[in-house]
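Hi P.,

Sorry for the delay on this. The queue was packed all week, but I finally got your sequence through. Input first:
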Amino acid sequence: MKDRSQAENLLETWIKNDALQYHCRMVAAAMDAYARELGKSEDEIEKWWQAGLLHDLDWEAYPDEHPNKAVDEILPEHQVDEEVIQAVKAHAPDRTNTEPTSELDRYLFACDEISGFMNAVALMRPNGFDDMKPKSVKKKLKDKQFAANVPRDDIYKGAELIETSLDDHIMFLVDIFKRM
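Then the structure:
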């Protein structure tokens, strides 16, 4: 896939739900920011962004086959880079038997579930992301009733995979998401 407009078109073709599109854009923004923070080349930044944007491409149409439908059929059909496909596969190890091993894999895994969770927290706050602190996110993590479908273990594992504290990971993401 050559450029961002093609990736955006692919996203909008496969995902009609605004909330799911927003989630994918959040993860893409997080991945772009982390790639820049890590000093990646422009080509690598593009791959990281595409992995974030396209990671849930088949979720709406094929939830039971996610992400296998995307990695086996949709993404290859659109000439998406193999590293991006691998990262999409590794972001759901329980469904694909593929653990996140590359740096791209690990960061996508780390940014996915926490982005959705942080968005849920932001929706409950009068100022959204603007004055969000790690303490408020971690407090909601302890409340098993809040965003109950988000696997907490994946959030903790994600921070470990990128070798950062959960607090630092949350603050980095807050800075990105409040600009969206």
